[in-house]
Predict the 3D structure of the following.
Amino acid sequence: MQVSAPDRDQLRALAELRLDRPLVISLYLNLDPSQFATPPARKSGIRSLIDEAERRVRERNGLSHEDRAALQGALERAKGFLENDLPTDGAHALAVFASEENDLFQVLKLPRSVPNRVAIGRSPLVGPLARIARRERWCVTLVNRRDARILRGGSDGLREVERIHDDVSGQHDQGGWSQSRYQRGVEKEKDDHLKTTCDALLRHFKRQPFQRLIVGGPREVVTDFEQKLHHYLSERLGGRVEVDVERSNPDQVLEAARPLIEKLEREREHDALERLGERGACGIEDVLPPLNERRVELLILDEQFGGVTGVQCLECGWLGLEGDRCPADGSETVQLDDLTEAMIELSVQQAADLLAVHHEREGLERYGGAAALLRF
């Protein structure tokens, strides 16, 4: 099981799973190394999470005997896994989704910490996953004639996901035909190394697409490398950084890349807000209708958006600010203390992107912290 942010297909598959009754348990376990580095600390965190889940099942109202037994069975399976088979290597958090009704048991090792959380619903809670996926949209590739490193993340942190080393011969000064043939061999070895790196980078992109690519290394090697990139990657080039390819740690790479990342993130936020005048919805009241109609291409939220109460249809997932009945199918609605997670999940279901605004918060504030770009 790899440590990775969920890709769009995983998110959508989870978000589209919807049962007739609330029989899915979602558990998020925080494994932040700064807090849970030792077995006793992890054991305490697991115990706290399981206690909360057991309390939720016990106090859940309106459950039939069969449904309560199914929830308890799903929780027992999750409990056994967390207490006996916990895969912690490299993970900063775990997400566990379990449902006896749907024969669902899925575990994701996450590259970023999340708070402990329990949810019981008709579908898995994917909002925290979508937030993690958003924070993994940058790729930094460092490359020289022999070595290459691929890092993923954003302005709040990078992690190394692959390191490549190829034995490439050095130059010699014998002169004549021997030197010429030797040098051609050296160049071919270098070209093969760059091609291997390009292929590895493309595999990472296909598995989990990133928004922008930054490259670092000796200028002549980087220029050659960029020319060999697949056009899927070359069109995402965002600039270059000066950093030691072999010896710099992820924090040092981030320090070199941060100004460029923040500059490009600010530009993206600004461009998104500028485009709202063309085909956008501004404010929570105007965002919810196209979100319900599956017309959202980009959901734009203040990074601290939250605290807006609303309602959700138990049958179709319709979201609104108020109302006892769903206007779409007449079913009962339930009260939500915060619409944020439900909005994100609905955006995932329609393959919409999420933009959490950090730099242009003041510009989004006049819309109440929420807006959307629409497909039509």
